[in-house]
TrEMBL record:
Species annotation: Xyrichtys novacula (Pearly razorfish)
Limits of the EF-hand domain: 39-74
GO cellular component, as recorded: cytoplasm
The family this protein is said to belong to: Belongs to the parvalbumin family.
This protein's name: Parvalbumin
Primary role: In muscle, parvalbumin is thought to be involved in relaxation after contraction. It binds two calcium ions.
Keyword Repeat: yes
Entries under SUPFAM superfamilies matching the protein: EF-hand (SSF47473)
Record: residues binding Ca(2+) 2: D91, D93, D95, E102
Amino acid sequence: MSLSSILSADAIDSAIKDCQAPDSFCPKKFFQMCGLTKKSPQDVKKVFGILDNDGSGFIEEEELKFFLQRFSPGARVLTDKETKGFLCAADDDSDGRIGADEFQAMVMS
């Protein structure tokens, strides 16, 4: 399954273009622009599964760096500042990784 089977390619494109400059990525704005905030909880879980590159059930810091590239292969890598900010914003239990429920809570909030 690909992200474009859940989200529109145009919406993904717009969201990627909006955060092309280093340190301009804002997860909540990105989720709104790509249309993820309007999707069902089941679709959000599917997106989480795609973003969980190693299938561990969590999105770790290393996977977060390449977050934008999971949406569009030509996108940039997140900066360390963006990666840590994203992790802090979503990691409710402070275990250093984002679980499916934490991801869903961030997207839907």
